[in-house]
Amino acid sequence: MRCLLLGATGFIGGHVWTRLAADPAVTVLPAARSGAVLHVDLAETGPAELWAMLRETAPDVVVNCAGVTGGDAVAMAAGNVVAVAHLLAALERRDWLVSGRPVRLVHLGSAGEYGAVPAGRPVSETYPPQPVSAYGMSKLAGTELVLAARRQGRAATVLRVFNPIGPGTPQSLLPGRLVASLRRSAETGEPARLGRLDGHRDFIDVRDVASAVAAAAMATGRLPGVLNVGSGRATALRDLAETAADAVGVPPPLEEDTGSSRSAAVNWQQADIAATVASLGWQPAYPLAASLADMGLTAAPASHR
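Now predict its structure.
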């Protein structure tokens, strides 16, 4: 199988690249804005150029891990909506003008598309999306474009990824900020500080995400249009902070009245992963403690405990 991997050098994309490359039955064609064999920026590369790349690489499946998680609404619309439209237009043209079977698409969505959901219960793929942030709205718009193409015959699946954690987690995500803050606390003896840690999130190891993406990419049968990729558990953010702080040997972070706009008004996230397990034969394998440990948490010097 030839797989064109877009966003191959990002946090999730890098792990997907590693996972796919480990399979001798897969030829990975990595593409990204920088650091990959193929240079492409979906937001700035038009359908004609993308079609030329598709024609040259002749993939069986395209995995789109590219996207924008920060910046203003214009940047998010460009990276999460316009980019998807460009890709779908190029795929449609490729199918019409190049002989062979249509290229399948696996696109990464986000739990941010659901917005605020009822507390205390997992959310399934049938729950009506109601995003409350510019990020969630832009990701949902990209998902709707993919689903519209699917209704017109495109073999396409959206994987709604919940809260990825694990090796390489960037500081743009709460676990990355948490670990960086605790490390500074261990080095300086000053208390760690974060925004409010109210609410619960479904944290899923990025390596488990990569396994789910690989399973979807290599699936031979027809998959559902949307599949949740999460752990199936809701973790209190304060429990996450305390577990990480205990691993370092410093006090939990002080909470300040700030927070991420991406998480606005969302107090509960827990994925219902039954459809994903049934469709992909996939199960999350990494417990949260292992994900935190593999982010490089080490005990602080005794004088700072």
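The CA atoms of residues 200 and 235 lie 5 Å apart.
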